[in-house]
Amino acid sequence: MRRRWLVLASFLTAFALVAAACGDDDATTTAPPATTTTGPGTTAATTTTSPDVEAAFDVGVTPAPCSDALNEGNGCIYLGVITDLTGPFALFGGPLTAAQEDFWARVNADGGLDGWDVIITAENTVDAKYDIDGQNTAAGAATLATRVAALAQSLGTPQTQSALQIYDENNMVAAPATWWSGWAFSDQDRGLILESGAPYCFEAMNGMSYLVDSLGTDFTWALVRFAGDYGGDYGNGALIAAAQLGLNDPVADIQQTSFAAGGDAAIASTVTALLPLQPQVIVMVTGPSEVARITGGLAQNGFTDFRVIGASPTWHPALMVQVPDLVPLWQATFNATYPWGVWSSDTAGHAAMRAAAEAKGQDPDPGYVAGWVWQYPIKALLEQAIETNDLTRANLRGIAASLESVDYEGMLPERTYAGDPNDHAVRSTLVVGIDPEAPGGVVEVAGSFVSPTAAGYEFDGPCFVFGG
Question: pTM of this prediction?
Fold first, then answer.
């Protein structure tokens, strides 16, 4: 194992910031501006009689068919994507974006949405490179504001926040690639963000309850997390649950603005801090790289008698290929909380997703699952707008603020965005364990559930507030 551990630092660079919506607020990076090309879109509302009924539309909608249209008689609705295809989050952003393209290809293959096809083109896909300062994301948003009806993806919480003023000024509704609890509140998302699944805060509450059910309350625990919205939201949820469940305070709360920026020294200092404490449970709110390097470092130094509960982005199946010597350790110690079912889950939505993936040669991947799930609210939004014969962005925004009856084909419970977040927020999650023989390397060890802590939590504001 020692030789394998020595190569972890070089191999796992690609995982260094893999954490869905992790918010390294204080980190700084330099990245080239995002680029897109011109495309369809007008600024003034227009009315068309094609398709069969009159419909008002403006930016990102045309009565002409989409390029490479399957349905020549249909009009076209263009969606945009702001993602990471070549930066530190590309491992997630690539499959995520592919799933969203495939989701709409399936819709179009079934005839489209009542006379309209929906498409994500390469020209409307911005590679913002997971820019921590949000400049690429904001630049991409400004360009897409002249091109698309809505955003199928806006990757990252601080990045999406950096573009939120542009979304607001242009009535651009977006599906986020982030589980920050703040998206549930209109004073945070301006009624523009259609999130899916339980936020990190509830993931953590359920995860801590799962541990207590397994271990009782007499265990020591440590918290290892990124700073910012990801570590803040999940970490605060774990702390809230610990207090409710009667656990002791964590023996350590290790926060890093960026483990990647700190390099080997940040990993080594974390391992060094944990070794003398020997916590029985480690709550990890990092990326796969940190999970591998920290657990590997502890094992190298003779400490393996621990359990890990990780947030959903802490696992990626590539770890099993790249660091096979650590797989037995993870099988014995590692669990992660997930907002929805794993690749092999038995739902109509999962079956459709797997069929689309298999047709494209896509391996099981958590990013692909997430990308697929995040499109259901956009589909419901467009369907309801079509029913009103008004596909203008202003109407899309008006519908989004109180969108109801989002059907996830069983991947999540049907939901609404109308009313008080305390009443409609999703609180159910599940827990997975590691199984090298399973698709994606994980299996459910606790099906979808809501813990008493999560059920009773008064959700009247974000669990983590920027600058708070």
Answer: 0.89
